Amino acid sequence: MGTAAVPGIELRELECFLVLSEELHFGRTGERLYVSQSRVSQLLRALESRIGARLVDRTSRRVCLTPLGEEFRTSLRPAYEALHATVESARTAARSIEGRLTIGFQGTADDRIMRSIDAFHARHPGCATEIIEIPLCDPFGALRSGAVDVAVALLPVAEPDLSLGPVFAAQQQTLALSVRHPLAARAGLTAEDLASVPLIAPDAPAPAYWREAHAPTATPGGRPIPAGPSVSTLQEGLTLAAAGRGGMLLCRPTADYHGRRDLAFVPVTGLPDSVLGLVHHPARETARIRAFHTAVTETIDADEAGNARSAGSPWIATEKCGR
Fold this sequence. Notes:
With 323 residues, this protein is an alpha/beta fold. The protein has ten helices and 13 strands. The strands form four sheets. Strands 4-3-5-13-6 form a five-stranded mixed β-sheet, with helices on one face. Strands 8-12-7-11 form a four-stranded mixed β-sheet. A two-stranded antiparallel sheet has the order 1-2. Helix 1 (11-23) packs across helix 2 and helix 1 (11-23) packs across helix 4 (67-95). It comes from Streptomyces chattanoogensis.
């Protein structure tokens, strides 16, 4: 059964009516609301017009509520106070560095991510963190659904409704191949060599541009690259690569992390490096998200400073990336 539409009521009108019902004086109501007496009258008339009846009787000597006004005040006050409490609770949550922060990651929560989380905990011990793996085939869905607050995701990120924050150091690509594959024994490959290898690709709903970046359909020279199977997870892709169904592009540190006897990881030159970045939904930004953003930025800055100091050293620690 249909219901009649009620014209949108301004919260200021409701607030004015409630204060007037307490003061029963237009001048004092205006003082409490920091508006003129004429503005109080205007807000009341607008509310009465929306409702379709008088709520207040005013003479030259007194102001009182009509029976309908009394009934309306009784019903309105608890609803208005509940709304006000809800708004204040949301504002407090937005400012607070407490509660829970849910962090999504793709493939591997490597040491850079974990050091960022450790730095966040050290500064904000009252905020718990939950770490959730994001499917390789859906890098942004968990952010949009609210399943995670932030995500450490593989670039590129070209989503108009999402915001990209700090990015981690770029890592060279390798190609994961079955040890039985003819190219597995090579010391290195070029991007043009990919024309002879079906590439295992992330499946939908990952955006087409993102899938193309991680499983290109052509070499930089324009040669077509055969399409291999589409997968939902990193482990699924590694298993298919080990079975000889194709090759899968991974950064070198992640290849080391997921090393197995039935796979070879061959470095590839001529491709863009693999890069991770911190992504969040700006409409859901909170103080917790901003604080984690700071922790990640400081971790990245510390790593870059350490790498600069180690530039002349014969040993430089290798970082892991998420894929």
